Amino acid sequence: MEHRIEELVTLKTIAETLNRSNVLMPTLQTVLEKLLELTGLKAGWIFLSGRSGQYECVADAGLPPALEIEDKRHMRCGNCWCLDRFWENRLNSAVNILNCKRLEDAVIHGRGDTMGITHHATVPLMAGEKRLGVLNVAAPGKMHFHQDELALLQSVAFQIGSAVERARLYGEEQRRAELFAKLGEFSRDLGASASEAPIPVCALALIGKYFPWPFAAIFRRSGDGFVCSAVHAGGQTICHATPIELGSIPWLIGCVTEQRRVMAAGEEAVRWQEHPELRGLVPPLTALLAVPLQAAAWPAGVLVIGSDWPGGLGRADGEVLEAIAEHITAASERSQLEEQRRELARLEERNRLARDLHDSVCQMLFSLSMTAKGAEQQLHDGEVNAVLAAVRDMQSLSREALKEMRALIMQLRPAGLEAGLVTALSEYGRKLGLKITSRISGVRELPRQTEETLWRIGQEALNNVYKHAQTDEATVELQLGDKAAILRISDAGVGMRPDFAENNEVSLGLFTMRERALALGGELNVTSAGGKGTVVEATIPLPDGKEGQG
Fold first, then answer.
1. Cross-strand bridge partners of residue 301
2. Over 251-309, what HEC string results?
3. What average pLDDT does the segment 504-524 reach?
4. Helices (H), ranges, 312-469
5. Whole-model pTM?
6. Is the pLDDT assigned to residue 536 strictly greater than 90?
7. What whole-number distance in Å separates Cα of residue 252 and Cα of residue 113?
8. pLDDT, tens digit, for every residue of 260-297?
């Protein structure tokens, strides 16, 4: 009866200890120490193991000096008889191990004092049918464990196994939450930076920034093999562009042909590291995970990540990796659509310029040609005064045509920005014959793309003033702040008609200006009323910076 009470006290104490925390390692250490204290045993250690050949010593207590040396190196490497039995599914209950291979090796190689420990009991750690590892306990001079002792150890092992699985599930859910939280940041930054570099390079750099995987790569199908587009390892992202035969990495075949998630571990992970085309790029890894990658902009491929953690990669990693692949695909398609949109905008702008050439310069040149022909006839008839008048008309028409042509050329290339955006726009307005009042507040350097976009918007706005406002005065204002640059073009002309959107020339110009602003994450606002003028205001966000006053 007394012995039974002692067993119940032991089990109760172990259960209470295991239920205090979901933090696995410290809890297992405490449980092991409690177990040794309650049973009178002197030494113990716990191995957790996934696949065959992989294990981790997660807790130990009372180890003899022979196993403590070299920072317990001999507890982290090499095989032993208890683990061999475990991996071979021959360890299904608590058993006596006749002797300990690690201690036996320590004696053979003279590694130090074994404290008289030669044998230990081994108990499998299980949660249902899932095999998790082994618990070993020993004492100096103890060469045999009674059935009652083994039964108690078996009961403790069941408790430990359940606690390990509970902690694993808790950790997996916590990891899933953390990974999906990072996924939001990844998606945001991928959308913002996709235009700055190729999508694969951007994606891998951001994977390295936000996720705890030491290796990531994107492979594209090419003929009968793959091309390694880019690799992230060692904190760096590089373009690789190396062809790889499909047969040399057979575990990836299913990912492409069957469009499913695949994993590699153990020897496959080692072979990946030693692949001739990847040698030097891949760090030591314990597991690899690949998901299919489909994008309209480039051939089907795979996204691969690697882990150096003993626990490898779990379900949460796979779920997040598939979500990342979807975001990469979406970003690639958005990039392709954006390029198509830009091409359409370019075509529309060319059409507008062609229309402007036809409506202005071509008409003037035609009038010039007809006037010259008339002057020739008048010259034959001896009408000197009429000829002089025609020559003056030709001079006026040629000047107008030249001015129009220069204005159109200015729209084709952003010349003059070296002197500053406001100066360039003011000069452009003056060449159109407008009286320009300019104002600027704040001092900071604009990104090249932002400056060019505001230049194009300002050009179009000044052209509209020149052609439609029925005034020769306009104001150009630029506000440079911490968060955004604001360009404002205003006039006191006739304003826009309520039906201005029906005017193709004006509406296309406004559409182009708005599209330019939206492409940089900005906005365009137009306010106008009949007889009260028009204000065109473009706001473009800027990178973080300090505003200065000028």
1. 220, 293
2. HHHHHHHCCCCEEEECHHHHHHHCCCCCCCCCCCCCEEEEEEEEECCEEEEEEEEEECC
3. 75
4. 315-356, 363-380, 384-412, 421-431, 448-468
5. 0.52
6. yes
7. 49
8. 788 877 777 777 777 777 777 778 888 888 888 876 55
C-alpha–C-alpha distance, residues 347 and 183, integer Å: 37
- Rounded Cα–Cα distance for residues 354 and 100 (Å): 89
Angle at 192 between CA 333 and CA 196, to 5 degrees: 80
Region of 491 (left: φ > 0; alpha: ψ -120 to 50; beta: rest) is beta
Give the pLDDT band of residue 194 (cuts 50, 70, 90): low
Domains, the chain, ranges and CATH? Answer: 2-172 (3.30.450.40), 192-336 (3.30.450.40), 419-550 (3.30.565.10)
Please tell me the distance from the alpha carbon of residue 285 to that of residue 54, in angstroms, as a whole number. 12
- Distance (Å, rounded) from C-alpha 515 to C-alpha 523? 9
Separation in Å, CA 499 to CA 192, 216, 496, 506, 507:
36, 55, 8, 11, 10
Q: How far apart are the first and last CA of the chain?
A: 92
Q: 315 and 305 in contact (C-beta within 8 Å)?
A: no
| Mean pLDDT value across residues 38-65 | 87
Cβ pair 179, 211 in contact under 8 A: yes
Q: Which of 41-45, 108-112, 226-230 comes out lowest in average pLDDT?
A: 226-230
